[in-house]
Amino acid sequence: MSAMPTDISTLPARELAALFDAAPVSLWLEDFSGIHSLLDGLRAGGIRDLAAHIAAHPAFVETCLSRIRVLAVNACTLKLFGATSQAELLDNLHRVFRDDMAQHFTADLLGMWEGRFEIETEGINYALDGRPVDILIRRSVLPGHEHDWSRALISLHDIGARKEAERQRESMRDYSQGLFEHSPVSLWVEDFSGIRALLDGLTAQGVTNPAAYLRTHPDFVQQCLRAIKVLDVNERTLQMFRASSKAELLANLGTVFGGDMSVHFTDELVEMAQGRVAYECEGINTTLTGEPVDVHLQRSVMPGSEATWDRVLISLTDITARKRAEAYMRYLGTHDAMTGLLNRASYEEARVRLEKDPSVTIAVAMIDVNGLKPVNDDLGHAAGDTLIRRAAEVLKEVSQPGDIVARVGGDEFAVLMPGQDLDYAARLADRLQRLIEVNNQFYQGPELSVAIGYAQTGPDLPFAAAERAADMAMYANKGARRR
Length: 483
Known about the structure:
Blueprint: H1 13-22, E1 26-31, H2 33-44, H3 50-56, H4 59-66, E2 69-73, H5 75-81, H6 86-91, H7 93-96, H8 101-113, E3 119-126, E4 132-141, E5 152-158, H9 160-181, E6 186-191, H10 193-204, H11 210-216, H12 218-227, E7 229-233, H13 235-240, H14 246-250, H15 253-256, H16 261-273, E8 279-286, E9 292-301, E10 312-318, H17 320-334, H18 344-355, E11 362-369, H19 372-379, H20 381-398, E12 404-407, E13 412-418, H21 422-442, E14 450-456, H22 463-482
Antiparallel strand pairs: 1-2, 1-5, 3-4, 4-5, 6-7, 6-10, 8-9, 9-10, 11-13, 11-14, 12-13
């Protein structure tokens, strides 16, 4: 194939007309000389500020539009706007150029006023069936007509597919942003590229065991923490941490990630150093008003950021209610609901644990509430329950740090005193009886009375035997009180 350039100006008029009509883009031949005359007239009249003139005389824009004469359009134009002929299209230009056309044309007029006739801009026209047509408009004056703009060539490129793709992308961005902002969990977008660089630096320095290094270099862990950049957070995050704005939250991240954050973060860094960027764990953060928040953290690198970690998505789910429920269930499993003391299971667990070290002596006291059955029979179980709670209240007061106090039966209590002897147990029994006397002065109804016995483990008295001895001493004390 060979190419021989041809001077298009030498083509016959018929061929030029055919070239115009067959062009694969919409072409319009127009006469703008009427607008040229109007603008010259304003200048001759002393107008220097066209924008101010239009603001005072908005009808001037419509006047200018009416002075444009469409001389010819090509076949592609008819197809673009759904017209069967040039006559049909020209008779319906008011349907093609409508709505915000005047607003766009005002800006166009201001450009012409300043001598910028050639333009390239985007806009919307309308096909004869009412369908909007997104177009790229290019306009230039034909050579030899620069003095009056009497011949201008306008090309309209159909950019509907591109604009629709842009609208879809914009819609998807809005949708994604909506999902982010209104997610029911706290979402954070963070930049971990600084951490990536620091960890890569360890490798470059020859550190072969990054896990051990991180656990023995807390300063490096703090450096990594400071390298995190928070790029965005959602509305739920502001609610969770009691922040009025993103700016307030970001200015107080030290409060949010205070406490034992560095301990958990060390574990996270170890995972990252081993190439596992996806991570989840539980931890505790703090609101800006000082309340602790139990959170379940999940972290993943966003697609396209795997090499740099410059976009990391982190979700924080508030599990405070669950943690409190779990703590309460654990409490119920180890404590007596009526008195708040340890229950029988916790007592047995402590006993087994203490028995594993026979070198430690243990003083044990067994306590029983006197006269509980008659109180239950005569005054009801509510009165009996009050006596049990009062006994527990007194035991809590007389016990010392390290003592293990438990309710081991209906009206039975036990106190384990690791490392203590009979004298210690005797002093506890004495304090108990004295405080019961005081307690009875503050309560109406049946008086509180208890029987207590105690014993001490030794080389010849293992725990089980000491417990039985304390129990027998308690019953002896109860019998003596009856006499």
